[in-house]
Amino acid sequence: MRQSAAVRRQLDRTLTQAMAELGAHVGAIYLTDPNGEVAAAEVGVGVPLDYARPLLRLKLTSVTADPVVEAIRERHLVWISSGEDYTRRYPHPARVFPYPFTMAVAPMATGCTVWGAVVLVWPPDRASELSDYERHTIDTLGDRLGCLLRDAAQTGHRLLPEARSLPLDRHAPAGSSEHRGATDFITRLPGGCCSLGPDGTITFLDATAAELLGGGIQDLFGAKLWETAPWMDDPLYEHRHRDAMYSQQPTCFTARRPCGDCLLFQLYPDPTGVSVLITPAAHGHPRHDPVPVLTELPSGPIQLGAIHHLMHLAGALAEAVTVRDVVELVADRFLVAFQAQAFALLVAEDGRVRVLGHRRFDTALLSQVDRMPLTEDTPSVLGLTIGVPSFFASRQEFTRAYPDRAGLDKDMAAWAFLPLIASGQPVGVCVLAYDRPHPFSAEERITLTSFSALIAQALDRARLYDAEHRLARGLQASLLPRNVPKIPGLEVAARYLPAHQGMDIGGDFYDLIRLGAGQAAAVIGDVQGHNVHAAGLMGQVRTAVHAYAVAGATPGEILARTNRLLTHLDSDLLTSCLYAHLDLAHRRAHLATAGHWPPLLRRPDLSTGFLPIRPGPLLGVDPSAAYPTTEVVLPPDTILVFYTDGLTEAPGIRHRCELTHLAPALSQTGRSLDDIADSLLLRAQPNGDLADDTALLLLRILPG
Fold it and tell me: Quick one: pLDDT at residue 305?
């Protein structure tokens, strides 16, 4: 513990020294978790962490653009030259920070390990580019912090993020906090009325300011400006304060008092806080900033932080695809945004409660909830059946409402059960739990309800996607061979991988057919498209080829008959097919192709190449087309590779027929066909990003 505290002090000191040297007014450090999946805030300097709560925990595997994630994943310095640049490149996090500023994010790395990232923020009026000195200083800062974190980890004290907030103090200690606030205020303004801390808390005000705000000095001291009176409770005012803190630029706003008079608030920031001059609006507006005047009081206001959370969650949920995506996203956002300690997502299935996902709930408790009948009297069932929300600020409240359930969850002290309503019907319940009593204000209940509506739409869409995905995969599996037959004298390996876009279903297929003693047939083909229509046509082609092969037709005849069948079906999808009749007794093969890629051949001497096969046209184009047959000799230990074009569409291949980059995987001896098949797929798509479906069939002629 002492060593970890010492490392944290050194991190803080290094960061604040670099900020002072570079003139940054905001700084932060993000640390990666040991699995390299999440980056979470360790410390923030200059701005309260509550202002950035939606971005305190970032998924490094997310497809959403984020400068911290980019710096960590790509291991390079990210420079944001303006607020417009930030909005253009990172639209989702810009919803949380809609303020003008410039920013640099540098990775903290040593060797092959990235420990996190360091963030520095400047006002928008600085130079739009980093100087060579600044760039070198920031890179050096990342290296120094990375070395600190590496050394701590090597001694068994790897830091886990604690999300600490440090003030940026540029003044010497000055006694009491009230005296210190007055000193800050006088330093920043030639004359004024009110001084705010970085989080908007009033640290100094005079009698005139208190009178205009409608309270006493002692009553208002320590409160946030927008919480001093009901007529000040509007998100615009908090937004203006945040704008001043992030941009370090003066700004202003007006507010109408209940008596009808308008007050002008002029905000003058520096990194330690904001000085505010409050005057009657009739005295005039500053020329540098047009001031919006409120004509009526807001009804049902919610805090700006909640609005930012709502906007950030909305953008993230729009990209969630599967139920798992929704569960992980909501768990991360809810626990952080509402400072809850546990989360669970429940749905109704077959008349019972089902737990879709959870975070930090006791597993024994969830096992009692999972599969609970919908006839039980619980707040979860109430939310699932009739869509009624329930809030329990303390264990006593829960016990009074549900005395029979009081002993189930002994680790938590407050709960919110939020029904998820989509298209007017409950689709689930989101459960938040707190380890301490938590009074739910009317504002927080409204905000939670707004969140639950977003979650409901995303969950409903994700469950539909998962159902379609299962249907598609089931259809694909039913159309491909369930088991590849074992044929004496032949070693076989087969693979099918769907593209990473669409329904995970397509028209690629393969087949291995037993034709009799020492006889077999290998088939591979590709129907254009990635949908159910393509899969259905693929099933028809595979069935036709299989039937004609078993009936004893030659390769050319099989393709010609299948071609005439497809022309009668009048399909507008193009289909390629390669058929090979294998005579294992005489070690020969007869092949015919309908516009399909020729197979790769590895000879016993480990040389590789393509079989020169005379091609015929694609199936279903010309009903009178003929398909010539090619004969090849197959010595023992010959390997044939049949493939579809998903294997050839790897990045960096100039010509799709050039598969020489796959030759090393074929030329290695002593490997099974399964190992070779996996190696071929890895070499063709090193990042696992398949642009097209891929079918692969490997055959080895065994000796004997």
Answer: 60
Does residue 525 carry a pLDDT above 70?
yes
Of the candidates 272, 265, 198, 185, which has an alpha carbon nearest to the alpha carbon of residue 232? 265
Q: Which amino acid is at 158?
A: R
**Cα(42)–Cα(248) distance, rounded to whole angstroms?**
24
Q: Which CATH architecture has domain 320-472?
A: 2-Layer Sandwich (3.30)
Give the three-state DSSP class for 27. Answer: strand
DSSP-H helix ranges across 104-175: 132-154
Query: Dihedrals φ, ψ of 89, to 5°?
Result: -85, -30
For residue 137, the one-letter residue type is T
Q: Per-residue DSSP letters for 648-699? A: T--TT-SSTT--GGGHHHHH-SS--HHHHHHHHHHHH-TT---SS-EEEEEE
Domain made up of 177-304: CATH architecture: 2-Layer Sandwich (3.30)
- Domain 2-166: which topology? Beta-Lactamase (3.30.450)
| 334 vs 638: CA distance, rounded Å | 58
Please check the confidence at residue 424 and state whether its pLDDT lies above 70: yes
Q: For residue range 459-495, list pLDDT tens digits in order.
A: 888 888 777 777 766 766 666 777 788 999 999 999 8
Beta bridge partners of 32: 39
* Residue among 365, 345, 342 nearest 355 (CA): 345
With a cut of 50, say whether residue 653 has pLDDT above it: no
pLDDT at residue 324 in the model: 85
DSSP reduced 3-state for 634? coil
Closest Cα partner for 7 from 138, 107, 153? 153
Fold of 480-701: Phosphatase 2c; domain 1 (3.60.40)
Helix 442-479 vs helix 323-337: crossing angle, to nearest 10: 160
Domains 177-304 and 480-701 share a fold: no
Q: How many C-beta neighbours within 10 Å does residue 541 have?
A: 29
Query: What one-character-per-residue DSSP string does 526-577 give?
Result: EES-SSHHHHHHHHHHHHHHHHHHHTT--HHHHHHHHHHHHHHHT--S-EEE
Least confident of 37-41, 113-117, 140-144, 465-469: 465-469
**Domains of the chain by residue range:** 2-166, 177-304, 320-472, 480-701
Q: Is the dihedral of CA 172, 177, 182, 187 positive or negative?
A: positive
Tell me how far apart the alpha carbons of residues 567 and 694 are, in angstroms, rounded to a whole number: 25
Classified as helix, coil or strand, 451 is: helix
Q: The whole model's pTM is what?
A: 0.50
pLDDT tens digit sequence for 289-338: 433 333 333 333 445 565 666 667 777 777 778 888 888 888 877 777 78
CB of 408 closer than 8 Å to CB of 380: no
Percent helix, strand and coil across the chain, each to the nearest 5: 40, 25, 35
Bridge-based pairing of strands 600-602 and 639-643 is: antiparallel
pLDDT on residue 685: 64
Residue 75 to residue 594: CA distance in whole angstroms = 47
Look up residue 556 and give its two tokens.
Answer: 């050319």
- Between helix 304-319 and helix 323-337 the angle, nearest 10°, is 170
- Rg of the chain on CA atoms, in Å: 34
Geometric angle at alpha carbon 203, from 437 and 184, rounded to 5°: 145
Measured CA to CA, the distance from residue 507 to residue 445 in angstroms comes to: 50
Helices and strands, counts by H and E, the chain = 19, 28
Pairing of strands 608-610, 694-701: unpaired
Residue 572 CB coordination number (10 Å): 9
Q: Are 602 and 673 in contact (CB under 8 A)?
A: no
DSSP SS3 for 84: helix
Q: Can you spell out the DSSP letters for 32-65? A: E-TTSSEEEEEEEESS-GGGGGGGSEEETT-SS-
What's the confidence (pLDDT) of residue 175?
47
Residues 6+ apart with CB under 8 A from 368: 408
Burial class of residue 131 in the structure, from the number of CB atoms within 10 Å of its CB (0-12 exposed, 13-18 middle, 19+ buried): exposed
